[in-house]
């Protein structure tokens, strides 16, 4: 196994002014997507000696992503598969003594919990569930496992219908909906009303015991170190659907089932975890101000909820994925800083340090943040390590000794050795509106020569409270490999800079984020290698909002592809899957009470200015930004006589990139449209 040493903070990737292509290599192309392999969810054993990780691969024949579990030692030796085949294995968790792992798999046809004894390799499914398990957690003594499943509630019955005569072929029937959430992006069928409940099962199998009840969702279970109780979050007010963002922390005694509510401030209380010494509870969240962006902080409190303290005051970046250090004196956490996904360690007094940078995800789409890690009792850790130049690999380190991060896998070595990729260069530009500086990246084509003139694509991220960064992005690499300079930025509203920057667009979106995008375009055009007659603009979701807004404000773009946009906030909040959240947090009134507020921020209000040839592109089953949003814009453009087309991607939700062929279609239609103009 070849080991690569990576410095703790990898310096930023500056493009050489003149990129040389290797004649032995070929440019990255559509079908190459199927050859990529990604490391995800690395789980280090409690003694820090072995890492189990999830390997993602793609099957060109079935067009599916499949996952298997692999094992490797901390030294990089003994790299071997735990599972194989295309059935899907994931969410591995080590037993506290490191003798077993539990994981989920659909090997038996439906998703079940499996346990594997690591010394012998003996493996067995220990459940026989009718619904998929999640959130697997070993009890501290290793005898039991907690998990959650979604249990359907009783369905409404409004009509007494006659049965068809025997042998008759009638139409399917009707779908009766009376719950608040009846569609969720990613689930193509209408949702059944269901609630997430916590179950306990012996690690050797048998009948599971249901711990929670009622028509409430119970999430994020975790054990107390003595194994006598568990923590979880739930909104048991009875109004959780229409009044989101208000889950509280509960402690339940395992033996008696007695439940105590520990928190009561209005707002989300995420992932509660008890310190190994049993003294504190840590959780992530905020006190709800009913606006779109609210910084997620890290809190600690005593076991009974007293002495609540926010310990992440100095960070000003969202905290997620917390893990107590073994000595109960600090916590590990994930955060994004200036478009870079990081692992940090924070002491109880709020002092924090970066443990590792450049964490990566398994996305084949655009360069959004994220990543995964785990930490052993002795401070050894494993991360999913990203880079702009290759898919995510596995890396390890040792926090107490500040050991340099060591990359253990090189699953994509042959891929990177045989492909010419675009090169990512960072830039900052002063805002033309105020004192903010706007961060962006230029992805230049493999054979880039700055003395030549290139077409340019501005690609805009969604969220809007997310961030792009110098991360591997097959979607944008495909555009670069076809000869485009691709520019992407983090306009105001993006996370990973400051609360002030992210919350600027609270109930004010889109606004000066548009100016930030244009400042970035001006900056890159001024570098001298962009053909100003071939400026193109695209973006998805929130990026669809901003790209349609932009062509209503300027005609500088030769063509636009507006992907899965919101075009009309009034119709959006009454058709989108998460409508209670959007209506209550992104606007101050309901649409019928203040339609002006909705219209003035809707791209449809500017469609009368648009002359730019525009393609709409949307997944046929997009329930986040419904197809009707794209249709409104398409029909308005047609009525105005503007060149327009609309591409509906079959079998696609909002996450078009979750199926490789749909991602390929998305890029091919975007580039096909731009080539026309
Ligand atoms: C609690 S915030 C809910 C909004 C959510 N945020 C996640 O990023 C979201 O879906 N935002 C949309 C725009 C909104 C519906 C107007 C969005 O821009 N999505 C982004 C990010 C994303 C990527 C993959 C799956 C879900 C969201 C996008 O599609 O690029």
TrEMBL record:
<protein>
    <recommendedName>
        <fullName>Acyl-peptide hydrolase</fullName>
    </recommendedName>
</protein>
<keyword id="KW-0378">Hydrolase</keyword>
<dbReference type="InterPro" id="IPR011659">
    <property type="entry name" value="WD40"/>
</dbReference>
<dbReference type="Pfam" id="PF00930">
    <property type="entry name" value="DPPIV_N"/>
</dbReference>
<keyword id="KW-0007">Acetylation</keyword>
<dbReference type="InterPro" id="IPR002471">
    <property type="entry name" value="Pept_S9_AS"/>
</dbReference>
<keyword id="KW-0720">Serine protease</keyword>
<keyword id="KW-0645">Protease</keyword>
<feature type="domain" description="Dipeptidylpeptidase IV N-terminal">
    <location>
        <begin position="185"/>
        <end position="283"/>
    </location>
</feature>
<dbReference type="InterPro" id="IPR029058">
    <property type="entry name" value="AB_hydrolase_fold"/>
</dbReference>
<comment type="function">
    <text>This enzyme catalyzes the hydrolysis of the N-terminal peptide bond of an N-acetylated peptide to generate an N-acetylated amino acid and a peptide with a free N-terminus. It preferentially cleaves off Ac-Ala, Ac-Met and Ac-Ser. Also, involved in the degradation of oxidized and glycated proteins.</text>
</comment>
<dbReference type="InterPro" id="IPR011042">
    <property type="entry name" value="6-blade_b-propeller_TolB-like"/>
</dbReference>
<dbReference type="InterPro" id="IPR001375">
    <property type="entry name" value="Peptidase_S9_cat"/>
</dbReference>
<dbReference type="Pfam" id="PF07676">
    <property type="entry name" value="PD40"/>
</dbReference>
<dbReference type="InterPro" id="IPR002469">
    <property type="entry name" value="Peptidase_S9B_N"/>
</dbReference>
<feature type="domain" description="Peptidase S9 prolyl oligopeptidase catalytic">
    <location>
        <begin position="471"/>
        <end position="677"/>
    </location>
</feature>
<dbReference type="Pfam" id="PF00326">
    <property type="entry name" value="Peptidase_S9"/>
</dbReference>
């Amino acid at each position: 196994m070849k080991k690569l040493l990576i410095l703790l903070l990898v310096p930023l990737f500056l493009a050489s002014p003149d990129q040389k292509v290797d004649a032995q290599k070929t440019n990255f192309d559509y079908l190459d997507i199927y050859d990529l392999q990604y490391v995800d969810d690395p789980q280090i054993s409690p003694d820090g000696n072995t890492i189990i990780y999830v390997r993602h691969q793609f099957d060109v024949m079935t067009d599916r992503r499949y996952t298997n579990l692999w094992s490797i030692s901390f030294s990089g030796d003994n790299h071997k598969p735990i599972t194989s085949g295309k059935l899907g294995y994931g969410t591995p968790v080590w037993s506290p003594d490191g003798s077993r792992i539990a994981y989920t798999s659909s090997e038996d046809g439906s998703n079940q919990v499996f346990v594997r004894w690591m010394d012998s390799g003996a493996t067995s499914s220990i459940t026989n569930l009718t619904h998929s398990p999640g959130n697997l957690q070993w009890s501290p003594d290793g005898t039991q496992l907690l998990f959650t499943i979604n249990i359907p509630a009783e369905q409404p019955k409004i009509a007494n219908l006659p049965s068809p005569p025997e042998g008759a072929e009638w139409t399917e029937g009707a779908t009766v909906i009376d719950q608040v959430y009846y569609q969720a992006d990613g689930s193509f069928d209408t949702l059944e009303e269901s609630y997430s409940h916590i179950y306990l099962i012996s690690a050797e199998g048998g009948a599971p015991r249901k711990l929670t009840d009622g028509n409430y969702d119970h999430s994020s279970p975790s054990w107390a170190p003595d194994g006598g109780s568990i923590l979880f979050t739930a909104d048991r007010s009875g109004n959780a659907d229409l009044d989101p963002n208000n889950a509280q922390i509960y402690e339940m005694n395992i033996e008696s089932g007695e439940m105590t509510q520990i928190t009561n401030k209005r707002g989300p209380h995420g992932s509660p975890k008890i310190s190994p010494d049993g003294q504190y509870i840590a959780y992530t969240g905020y006190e709800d101000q009913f606006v779109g962006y609210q910084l997620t902080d890290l809190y600690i409190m005593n076991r009974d909820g007293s002495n609540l303290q926010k310990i992440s005051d100095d960070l000003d970046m969202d905290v997620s994925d917390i893990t107590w250090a073994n000595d109960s004196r600090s916590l590990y956490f994930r955060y994004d800083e200036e478009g870079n996904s990081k692992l940090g360690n924070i002491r109880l007094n709020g002092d924090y340090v970066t443990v590792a940078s450049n964490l990566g995800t398994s996305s084949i789409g655009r360069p959004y943040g994220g990543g995964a890690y785990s930490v052993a009792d002795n401070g050894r850790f494993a991360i999913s390590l990203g880079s702009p130049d290759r898919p995510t690999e596995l890396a390890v380190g040792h926090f107490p000794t500040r050991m340099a991060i060591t990359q253990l896998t090189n699953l994509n070595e042959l891929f990177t050795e045989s492909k010419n990729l675009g090169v990512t260069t960072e830039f900052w530009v002063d805002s033309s509106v105020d004192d903010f500086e706007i961060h962006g990246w230029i992805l230049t084509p493999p054979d880039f020569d700055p003395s030549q003139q290139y077409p340019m694509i501005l690609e805009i991220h969604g969220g809007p409270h997310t961030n792009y960064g110098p991360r591997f992005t097959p979607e944008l690499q495909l555009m670069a490999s076809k000869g485009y300079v691709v520019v992407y930025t983090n306009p105001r509203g993006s996370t990973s800079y400051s609360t002030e920057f992210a919350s600027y667009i609270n109930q004010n979106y889109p606004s000066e984020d548009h100016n930030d995008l244009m400042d970035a375009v001006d900056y890159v055009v001024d570098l001298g290698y962009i053909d100003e007659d071939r400026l193109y603009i695209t973006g998805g979701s929130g990026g669809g909002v901003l790209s349609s807004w932009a062509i209503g404000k300027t005609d500088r773009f030769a063509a636009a592809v507006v992907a899965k946009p919101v075009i009309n906030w009034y119709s959006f909040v009454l058709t989108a899957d998460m409508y209670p959240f959007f209506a209550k947090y992104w606007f101050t009134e309901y649409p019928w009470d203040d339609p002006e507020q909705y219209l003035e921020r809707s791209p449809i209000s500017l469609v009368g200015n648009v002359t730019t040839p525009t393609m709409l592109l949307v997944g046929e089953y997009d329930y986040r930004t419904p197809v009707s949003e794209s249709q409104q814009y398409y029909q308005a453009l047609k009525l105005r006589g503007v060149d327009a087309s609309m591409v509906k991607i079959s079998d696609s939700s909002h996450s078009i990139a979750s199926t490789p062929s749909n991602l390929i279609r998305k890029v091919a239609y975007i580039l096909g449209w731009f080539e026309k103009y």
